[in-house]
């Protein structure tokens, strides 16, 4: 067990550094998009670059989250499953469920 | 209703037909008379009429692996459907399965489905639903298991008893905001497949998502389905069998009869009657009235096939 402690300590330092960096850059708040009743909610959002977005499927049917420009693509999300991606680049991203393509959403990423 | 009446053309007016369509959702059976759908009565009555010609049976939307409140045991109700096949007075020649065999494309789900459906002891012709293409390689698992002899994403045709059967795949490469999709490669294959066929050849087309537009808002239709149907226009008898929407809906347009089958797993709401499609919870004692299979009889000397929806339990 003795060698574990220094590792943990190192991890702690790294975490402190990350937190410190985050605070300095004022990391954007993570955003959650719910999937309920075959609908992304909210369907349209605007977030600053670097925002982490998480989709969670609340339906009894699997869904996917696929960017039309293929910049991100989830596996099939069963009930309760989530998919997370960080949107680093500014731009407008259209996405949809590749199983139920009438389900669409849009994220505008500002610089 | 006697068997003879079924063969009389035009035995029902439009109002009557619409009335039947209202019944359809409650599990009353269907037949076809002179191109107009009509109610056949309850299971016992329909099964008592001795079929002529040959029959095959449609299974759809088994969703093996589904365990949510709408039906915690989808494998069990599939087993019930298969058991009922064994009790039919006239054994079907083969089965077609119009997709969503599995719920999440997991190997165990396919294994379980194969074991139960295999219990019928009949050849099965499959087409995939979108739930069958959820493996990491997007459909490889399906094709490895069911795609032998098929083209592209799993389409094919075959002939039986003078009827030309065509299995289409409209669940791949779906576009944002769109509906089901066949794609140019498959459409070209279809056009080629039909070339040289006599217009008097009865055609049965089966695919997962309805080839006709049932309900745009829920994506219940096929983007390029009309193009496929344009190739079928010259044929005197075309029957289009679909699944996906987990309920019976039927319409007749010219020589084409469109019909969707019940699921063996769970019902879905009628178009526009709920916030969304998806599993619909019904009282436990009602579930088996909205699950079931469809028997299709090809009758000698009759232009139209006889479709009989068979719920797992009579109303």
Description:
The complex is a heterodimer of chains A (111) and B (315). With 111 residues, chain A is an alpha/beta fold. Chain A has one helix at 4-25, and strands at residues 31-36, 39-41, 44-48, 51-57, 66-67, 82-87, 91-96, 104-110. The longest helix of chain A is centred in the first third of the chain and has 22 residues, at 4-25. Chain A is globular and about 40 Å long. Residues 1-6 and 12-23 of chain A have low confidence and may be disordered. Chain B has 315 residues and is of the alpha/beta class. Chain B contains 8 helices and 13 strands. Chain B is globular and about 50 Å long. In chain B, the strands form 3 sheets. Chain B has a 6-stranded mixed beta sheet with strand order 6-7-8-9-11-10, with no helix packed on it. Chain B has a 5-stranded mixed beta sheet with strand order 5-4-3-12-13, with no helix packed on it. In chain B, strands 1-2 form a two-stranded antiparallel ribbon. Residues 1-51 of chain B have low confidence and may be disordered. In chain B, 48% of the residues are buried. In chain B, helix 4 (74-85) runs parallel beside helix 5. The chains are: A alpha/beta (111), B alpha/beta (315). Chains A and B meet through strand 7 of A and loops of B.
């Amino acid at each position: 067990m003795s060698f574990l402690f220094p590792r943990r300590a190192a991890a702690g330092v790294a975490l402190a550094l990350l937190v410190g960096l985050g605070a300095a850059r004022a990391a954007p708040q993570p955003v959650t998009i719910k999937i309920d009743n075959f609908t992304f909610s909210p369907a349209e959002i605007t977030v600053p670059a670097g925002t982490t977005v998480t989709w969670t499927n609340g339906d009894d049917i699997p869904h996917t989250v696929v960017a039309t420009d293929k910049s991100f693509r989830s596996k099939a999300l069963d009930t309760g499953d989530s998919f997370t991606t960080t949107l680093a680049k500014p731009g407008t991203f259209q996405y949809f469920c590749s199983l139920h393509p009438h389900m669409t959403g849009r994220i505008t990423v500002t610089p | 209703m006697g068997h003879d009446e079924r063969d009389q053309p035009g035995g029902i007016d439009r109002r009557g037909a619409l009335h039947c369509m209202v019944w359809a959702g409650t599990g009353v059976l269907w037949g076809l008379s002179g191109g107009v759908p009509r109610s056949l009565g309850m299971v016992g009555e329909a099964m008592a009429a001795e079929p002529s010609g040959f029959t095959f049976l449609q299974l759809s939307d088994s969703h093996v692996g589904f365990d949510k409140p709408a039906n915690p045991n989808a494998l069990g109700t599939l087993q019930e459907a298969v058991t009922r096949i064994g009790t039919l007075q006239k054994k079907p020649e083969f089965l077609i399965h119009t997709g969503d065999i599995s719920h999440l494309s997991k190997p165990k789900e396919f294994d379980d489905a194969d074991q139960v459906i295999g219990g019928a002891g009949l050849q099965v012709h499959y087409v995939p639903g979108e739930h069958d293409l959820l493996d990491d390689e997007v459909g490889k698992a399906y094709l490895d298991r069911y795609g032998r002899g098929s083209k592209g994403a799993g389409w094919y045709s075959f002939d039986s008893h003078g009827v030309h059967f065509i299995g289409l795949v409209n669940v791949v490469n779906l576009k944002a905001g769109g509906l089901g999709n066949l794609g140019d490669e498959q459409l070209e294959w279809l056009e080629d497949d039909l070339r040289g066929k006599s217009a008097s050849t009865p055609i049965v087309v089966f695919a997962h998502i309805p080839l006709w537009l049932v309900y745009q808002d829920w994506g219940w239709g096929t983007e390029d389905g009309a193009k496929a149907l344009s190739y079928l226009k010259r044929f005197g008898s075309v029957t289009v069998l679909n699944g996906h929407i987990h309920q019976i809906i039927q319409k007749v347009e010219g020589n084409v009869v469109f019909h969707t089958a019940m699921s063996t797993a769970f019902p879905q709401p009628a178009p526009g009657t709920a916030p969304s499609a998806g599993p619909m919870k019904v009282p436990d004692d009602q579930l088996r009235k909205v699950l079931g299979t469809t028997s299709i009889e090809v009758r000698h000397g009759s232009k139209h096939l006889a479709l009989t929806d068979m719920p797992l339990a009579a109303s």
